[in-house]
Amino acid sequence: MRLSLGELFSANFSIDMGRWLKVSGSLLALVAVSTQARAQDVPGEVPLADVLEILAVDRELLAIDAAGGGQTVARLRLDEVVVWKGARGKVGVVITDQRVLAVATQSGSWQEADYGRTELRPESALLGERIALAITSDRVLGFDGGSGNLVEQRLGPREKFVAARVGENVAVVVTDRQAIGLSPFLGGFFSVPIGLKDQIESISAESNIVTLTSSRQILIFRATTGTWEERTR
Length: 233
What we know:
The protein is α+β, with helices and mostly antiparallel strands. The chain is built from one helix and 19 strands. The chain has one helix spanning 5-40, and strands spanning 52-57, 60-65, 71-75, 82-88, 91-96, 99-104, 111-114, 126-127, 131-135, 139-144, 149-154, 161-166, 171-175, 178-182, 189-193, 200-205, 209-214, 217-222, 227-232. The protein is globular, with a radius of gyration of 26 Å.
């Protein structure tokens, strides 16, 4: 059977179009996989699943790690009372009448900070997915879920606490003298001064960024870089 030129062209076009669709479909799949892989490598990707559970059983604190497996145990002291406990994402905090304890997934041990003689304990902690805050009368305690370290910054004489906010991967504490940012990627606190005449108008903490607006400036803290940016109004 002989095909006309038009029929032959139509048949070849159909075959080429089918091949093109298969090739283009494969390319699109590769692009999707590549894009997904890049997204997974982005620092501070959210949301995270809750993969840590905190239990207080028989005078022991158990941090059960659903991601890496295993348990991290801390013993309660004689007559020590658990006041508050909570977990979110990869971090967990326990507040007792004697100290603050914190733990992260894949941690080898609990981190802890005892209260000073006249220090007033916090009633609760603020939890992100990789970060946590607990504020006493004398200092700010921050837990960096990235390294698993509990860090602190003492407040100055007569320095007044104003507000605190926590995002998934960033936290900020604002006093009448400074704004203190906390990042789980670089570790430690990063502070910027606030003028005595500045009136705080708004404070927000999103997944990786803090924005503080005052009467004189806008302050921006980025968790991925640990830096403050200032913009005069």
